[in-house]
Amino acid sequence: MKIMSWNVNSVRVRHDRLLALLDRHAPDVLCLQELKTEDKGFPFEAVRAAGYHAVTLGQKTYNGVALLSRTEPAEVLRGLDDGVEDPQARLISARYGDTRVVCVYVPNGGEMGSEKWAYKQAWYARLIAWLSRNASSRDALALCGDFNVSFDDRDLKDPAAWVDGVLYHPDARALLKGVVDWGLVDTFRQHQSEGGHYSWWDYRAGAWQKNDGLRIDFILATQALAARCTAAGIDIAERKPPKKSPDGKDDNPSDHAPIWAEFGDAAG
DNA sequence: ATGGTTGCTTAGCAA
Question: Whole-prediction pTM value?
Answer without folding.
Answer: 0.97
